[in-house]
Write a structure and sequence with these properties.
It is found in: Membrane. Pfam families: STAS, Sulfate_transp. This protein is mainly alpha-helical and 589 residues long. It folds into 2 domains: 395 residues, no CATH class; 141 residues, Transcription Regulator spoIIAA (2-Layer Sandwich). It is 60% helix and 5% strand. The strands form 2 sheets. The chain has a 6-stranded mixed beta sheet with strand order 4-3-5-6-7-8. The chain has a two-stranded antiparallel sheet with strand order 1-2. A hairpin with an 8-residue loop joins strand 3 and strand 4. Helix 2 packs antiparallel against helix 3 and helix 9 crosses helix 16. The protein starts with 9 loop residues before the first helix and ends in a 9-residue tail after the last helix. The N terminus and C terminus are likely disordered.
């Protein structure tokens, strides 16, 4: 495991930092000159891995290849300025690109015939919009919004996105012009136009895809996309693929990207901002998972709100340079760690290498064959499909597996953009279903042992005679109060003749609302009519504040509010000592 740079005292930091400006960047705190060689080496490796995806990914959204390079350059610069992580590398991402493609498709539906330059401007505006949302969310401390899409739903959604990306490559790998959208349409059109398939293009794509899979299964020390780009470019130069009907990337701008705010008065800004919100949810949800997974390997802490600022800066700078929305890149981050990059200077070095590639090697990049890039995108989409994760979800929870399938079907059936909405709705439905039926468990004691245990777990657990201890395993909110009330009343009906006290263990209740408090008031009144006293134990401070505000705590009385169940048991025995003699129970600690 790559060790994290040690924390230094202010005096030590002044001795080892090469210049004062480095101290301004969060990820470069405590920088040591000896790390420069490692960072530069890592930057070269990151650029080598990044070039194939930088050129290929824009095709998902119908953007020119150079926008991917501009996004790769701008994003690492932005993140290095603000981002908190030393080693996380940002860049183009397949899922983020798929959502952005759906947003741009909506724009094209409203503005048919939109020039590609304006489409690039729309993508840049989306990137800036995502960045602004990130900063706003960070200011509002909404870092936990990353949990808006749970892992099962993200897993299903990404599979749907991957299938959509693979379908989108049919035209690129076959040489056909596929005009249909969705899942079934392109496949039907492929069958209808099978006689027109450009077989050299398909053969090239299959060979490059086979190379990618071979390198994935038997690593050779060089990433598969790098091999494919180098080999396909060499073959294109030798055999003149363009003359043989195999489509190539074409001319790329030879200059460096210029900074500017994309402006187009005719673009539907309302739709762009809604689209930016959708991209933000998916990109940050996926990005924070990547950040946490790599942080677990390096021993770093992840602050979601700080990462929001880093992602925000990455997206804004990317948009200002003519790029598109980005998030953390697992492949580039993995390369950075494996080569030994220490800080974000590795990302900045990669940006410099990419700028040099655009300025001096554009003539080589122009002859890259489109089918080879399509093979890279198909392989990248397949890598997003986590079948092992799905199998684990199936083993853990059939319900969660069902929601993963719903998210997957949403992305495939309704399109990626609508799939985001389906995934979010599925998340909220899942949360409500989990919260709507909290279980109420009866607690008792095991003779000779301290503590309280659930009666249904073991035959050794025995109830305390005359005392019902009900553990509510969840929050009490308007949508589950009837369910909890029904369980409590059923328990009371079964034990009413012998019950003198009912204590609710509230240790798991972190939220309560007015509907739930009204239910508790009604329950307490009915218990009084049965001669049963009601009390609460281990009440959370936030819940206690509401109980005091509505005076329910006063109605119970301080004598029936307990710090823990042991206190409640002692008070019960003191009020009815004869109950303690019914069994040989251990005295509470």
């Amino acid at each position: 495991m790559v060790g994290i740079p040690p924390k230094l005292s202010p005096e030590e930091r002044k001795k080892v930092e090469p210049s004062a400006w480095l101290r301004v960047l969060p990820s470069l705190q405590g920088y040591r000159p000896g790390w420069l060689t490692s960072d530069v080496s890592a930057g070269l490796a990151i650029a080598a891995v990044g070039i194939p995806s930088a050129i290929a990914y824009p095709a998902i959204a119908g953007l020119p290849p150079e926008t991917g390079i501009y996004a790769s350059i701008g994003s690492v610069i932005g993140y290095a300025l603000v981002g908190p992580s030393r080693r996380l590398i940002v860049g183009p991402d397949a899922a983020t690109m798929a959502v952005m493609a759906a947003v741009l498709a909506t724009v094209l539906q409203q503005m048919p015939g939109l020039p590609q330059a304006d489409l690039v401007g729309a993508a840049s505006l989306l990137s800036i919009g995502v960045g602004l949302i990130c900063f706003a969310a960070s200011a509002l401390k909404l870092g936990n919004i990353a949990s808006l899409l749970s892992r099962p739903i993200l897993a299903g959604f990404f599979i749907g996105v991957a299938i959509s990306i693979i379908i989108g490559q049919i035209g690129r790998v076959t040489g056909l012009k596929i005009e249909s959208d969705g899942l079934v349409g392109p496949l039907t059109e492929l069958i209808q136009k099978a006689h027109s398939i450009h077989w050299p293009s398909l053969l090239l794509a299959l060979i490059m895809f086979a190379i990618l899979q071979f390198v994935r299964m038997r690593p050779v020390g060089i990433p598969g996309p790098v091999i494919v780009v180098a080999l396909s470019g060499l073959l294109s130069a030798i055999f003149n693929f363009e003359a043989k009907g195999i489509r190539i990337v074409g001319n790329l701008p030879t200059g460096l990207p210029s900074i500017g705010f994309p402006v187009h008065s005719g673009l539907p800004f309302d739709d762009l901002m809604l689209g930016a919100a959708a991209i933000f949810v998916v990109s940050f949800g996926a990005g924070i998972i990547t950040a946490r997974s790599f942080a677990a390997r390096t021993g770093e802490d992840v602050d979601p709100n700080a990462e929001l600022r880093g992602f925000g800066a990455a997206n804004i700078v990317s948009g200002l340079l003519g790029g598109f929305a980005v998030t953390s890149s697992d492949s580039r981050t993995a390369v950075n760690l494996s080569v030994g990059g220490k800080t974000q200077l590795a990302g900045l070095a990669a940006a410099i290498v990419l700028a040099i590639a655009v300025a001096f090697f554009a003539s080589y990049l122009r002859i890259l064959p489109i089918p080879a890039l399509g093979a890279i995108l198909i392989a990248a989409a397949l890598s997003v499909i986590d079948l092992d994760g799905l199998r684990q979800i199936w083993r853990i929870s059939r319900v969660e597996f069902g929601f993963a399938l719903i998210a997957m079907a949403g992305a495939i059936s309704f399109g990626v953009l609508q799939g985001v909405v389906v995934a979010i709705i599925a998340t909220f439905v899942y949360v409500i279903l989990k919260e709507i039926q909290p279980r109420v468990a009866l607690l008792g004691q095991i003779p000779g042992r301290l503590g309280f245990y659930k009666l249904h777990r073991s035959a050794d657990v025995q109830p305390v005679p005359g005392l019902l201890i009900c553990f509510i395993q969840g929050n009490l909110l308007f949508f589950n109060t009837d369910h909890v009330d029904g369980q409590l009343r059923e328990i009371i009906a079964e034990h009413a003749p012998d019950t003198r006290w009912l204590i609710i263990d509230a240790s798991a209740i972190t939220q309560i609302d007015s509907t739930a408090i009204a239910m508790l008031e009604d329950l307490q009144r009915d218990l009084e009519g049965l001669g049963i006293r009601m009390g609460l134990s281990e009440v959370q401070s936030s819940v206690w504040t509401l109980l005091e505000r509505c005076r329910f705590s006063s109605r119970l009385g301080p004598a029936m509010i307990f710090d823990d169940l042991d206190d409640a048991l002692r008070a019960f025995r003191a009020a009815a000592p004869e109950a303690a003699d019914a069994r040989n129970e251990p005295a509470p600690a």
